Amino acid sequence: MSTSEIEKPAKNDKSADSHERSVWVGFDLGGTKMLAAVYDAEFQLLGKKRKPTKGHEGSEAGIERVHGLIAKALEDADVSVDQIIGIGIGVPGPLDLVDGIVLDTPNLGWKDVPIRQQLEDKFGCPAVLMNDVDAGVYGETRFGAARGARCTVGLFPGTGIGGGCVIDGEIFRGSRLSCFEVGHMRVVPDGPRCGCGRRGCLEAVASRLSISAQAAAAAYRGQAPFLKKAEGTDLSEIRSAALAASIKGGDKVVEDIVRAAARHLGTAAGSLVNLLNPDVILLGGGLVEALPELYSEVVIGAAQKRAMACYRDTFEVKVASLGDYASVQGAAAWAQHTLEKTKG
Amino acid sequence: MSTSEIEKPAKNDKSADSHERSVWVGFDLGGTKMLAAVYDAEFQLLGKKRKPTKGHEGSEAGIERVHGLIAKALEDADVSVDQIIGIGIGVPGPLDLVDGIVLDTPNLGWKDVPIRQQLEDKFGCPAVLMNDVDAGVYGETRFGAARGARCTVGLFPGTGIGGGCVIDGEIFRGSRLSCFEVGHMRVVPDGPRCGCGRRGCLEAVASRLSISAQAAAAAYRGQAPFLKKAEGTDLSEIRSAALAASIKGGDKVVEDIVRAAARHLGTAAGSLVNLLNPDVILLGGGLVEALPELYSEVVIGAAQKRAMACYRDTFEVKVASLGDYASVQGAAAWAQHTLEKTKG
Fold first, then answer.
1. Does the pLDDT value for residue A15 go beyond 50?
2. Closest Cα in chain A, distance from residue B275 (Å)
3. Nearest partner of B172 among B114, B131, B216, judged by Cα
4. Can you tell me the distance from the alpha carbon of B165 to that of B154, in angstroms, rounded to the nearest whole number?
5. Which of residues 202-261 of A touch B (CB under 8 A)?
6. What is the pLDDT of residues A47-60, one digit of tens each?
């Protein structure tokens, strides 16, 4: 560190009254909760705020909640609106990335919301819309478990299966829309029905939801006594922590169900290794983070089996390390990356 | 056109004795034949030469043949070695693109050949190594059927299934090796055995070779009388033209076999639409080019069925239009693109 850096005022000096633009805002708009965070130019966290999304109240009320939460996070960071350089926001797709529009989010029930423009009008600074999983994969590649990877392929099994790819510091994107819908690659012809209406999607055999459904059936049949006692057979209660506890509690059948799902995920990861030659396969989401060893072991095994010989030793499997902050920090940093590239 | 351009000497003026560097060389090193071509700065063809590869003679003899063929193509174009700006060469993978090494080509039987350095030493100009299918997809995106596409995904069923992706003028590449091995994505768990040793690869159910094998069996069973009369049951004789003739001659079973393979290809194309959101799915290879309407129709149908609703009208299916020249012109133009970017 140079001596001149020591003379700078501390980054977190909340009494600083300079109103020059110096902070980035990251926002994660999830199906159940939303998180806003404020970062300094080195992406150190200055303040944050979280609340429920309440998507069912409609997009107009929702946008008000987004605006209000950003204001609260700014307050928490003790910075003013005119200090924001830019805002990055991650939203579940599909999105029109060219015009910054939320086309349709089944989880929120919103349609055709010009969210980028709305943020820019409200806060008087540029905003960048992106897919929430892209934000997470970008955040982990820049600050977390995949730091230093040249090409990261992220797979996040949850209610669905999110995916994203970061290559040479850029998020892979196709012609216009957000993409990398790994969950809707067909992996089993005439396989189980998926939420999207088709059959045999990866999501239908490897999402946390498909695992929970099979575990609930096992509990009902009396094959998962620990789970049945702890949570009953209501699918809504059988989430990541309950599944991890059931396995730790000795429910062998639940472990088999998770292993089979992880094998499907690993085989798909191996297909993606043949397709995209990433150096890191990044796994994330609640269940993976609750069972990191089991997931890593099964996914590595299945991916190595599927990968062609020449790709076999070219990739590592890593588990996401930033938790909920991957997406907000990723969105803020992507806003910086995008806006500085546009200027340059 | 400005008047000053009219005063320039004609591009093809073979009597020009200027030795300034002004031409690009493209080379396609295939399993059975090799093609060298010389282009001017606008990628107009100045000269070309073709001969058999004879990969079995080993890589040393092979490199001599490559050098010799380039010399012949320069002669055909009436330009001298010191006029070459750069050379682009497309080779079947796997390749180490960072160091310009042919790691292993089953079709040629070559291993660890530093072909880029060998070309640079021989011709005293920079050379660029790339995958042959990447070269073809790049060529079609820059000069052919996919011209103007922002994101092209190319699928070329032949003995195997080649694939490539060009996005925003760049070839998609992973961390180090050539990739986009669409043929080795798993599409049928426990499906037919593939040449790579695994089961259920796309290549095992949708390559021209898998079609030929099934058609030969149909001929043997007497279900493809036209084919049997024309070619017998020797797989080596049942190539693209024979399959197209068999269908035109009324062999319904052969048409069904091709349609089923094309449906697998189309479903995989649809999965890739969900993954990568290309605006063009480019089909190529001998069989596709012999049966363009049948392939386009079946692939569009299956891809639309697999694509998620929001992607359904975002892509077109096109058939390659440059034939053998896609790869050589693509390799020459990619050399230009790469070398000019390095300079910039």
1. no
2. 4
3. B131
4. 6
5. none
6. 999 999 988 889 99
Beta strands in chain A (DSSP E): 23-29, 33-39, 45-52, 84-91, 95-96, 101-105, 110-113, 127-131, 151-157, 161-167, 170-171, 280-283, 316-319
CB within 8 Å: B175 and A315: yes
Distance CA B93, CA B162 (A): 10
Distance CA B244, CA B265 (A): 18
Taking the Cβ of residue B308 and every Cβ of chain A, the question of whether any pair is shorter than 8 Å is answered with yes
Q: Which of A102, A79, A125 is nearest to A339 (CA)?
A: A125
CA distance A118 to chain B (A): 23
Amino acid B173 reads R
Residue of B nearest to A153 (CA): B174
B138 confidence band (pLDDT: 50, 70, 90): very high
Chain B residues close to A182, C-beta within 8 Å: 274-275
Tokens of B56: 């079995």
Q: Tokens 């009320």 correspond to what residue?
A: A61
pTM for this predicted structure: 0.91
Does residue B6 have a pLDDT over 80? Answer: no
Q: Please give the structure tokens belonging to residue B30.
A: 């295939």
d(CA B318, CA A236): 46
pLDDT of B139-185, one tens digit each? 999 999 999 999 999 999 998 999 999 999 999 988 878 889 999 99
Q: Distance (Å, rounded) from C-alpha A118 to C-alpha A124?
A: 10
- Tell me which of B101, B264, B310, B318 to substitute to probe the interface with A (most A C-beta atoms closer than 10 Å): B310
The CB density around residue A199, as the number of other CB atoms within 10 Å, is 14
Q: How far apart are CA A159 and CA A194, in angstroms?
A: 11
Q: Cα–Cα distance between A85 and B20 in angstroms, integer?
A: 50
Exposure letters B286-314 (e unless 16+ CB within 10 A, then b): bbbbbbbebbbebbbbbbbebbbebbeeb
Range list of H helices, chain B: 3-7, 59-77, 115-123, 132-143, 202-206, 208-220, 225-231, 240-248, 252-276, 286-290, 292-306, 325-343
Give the Cα separation of B327 and B322 in Å (integer): 9
Measured between CA atoms, how close is B47 to chain A, in angstroms?
35
Please state whether beta strands A316-319 and A280-283 pair in parallel, antiparallel, or not at all (unpaired): parallel
- What was the ipTM of the complex prediction? 0.89
In this predicted model, what pLDDT tens digit does every residue of B231-278 receive, in sequence order?
A: 999 999 999 999 999 999 999 999 999 999 999 999 999 999 999 999
Note whether B175 contacts A150, CB cutoff 8 Å: yes
Instruction: Quote the CA–CA distance of B253 and B227 in Å, as a whole number.
Output: 10
Which residues from A are below 8 Å from B196, CB to CB?
Answer: 308
- What is the rounded distance in angstroms from the CA atom of residue A130 to the CA atom of residue A92? 8
Q: Which of residues 48-67 of A touch B (CB under 8 A)?
A: none
What structural domains and CATH numbers belong to chain A?
A: 20-137+325-343 (3.30.420.40), 149-319 (3.30.420.40)
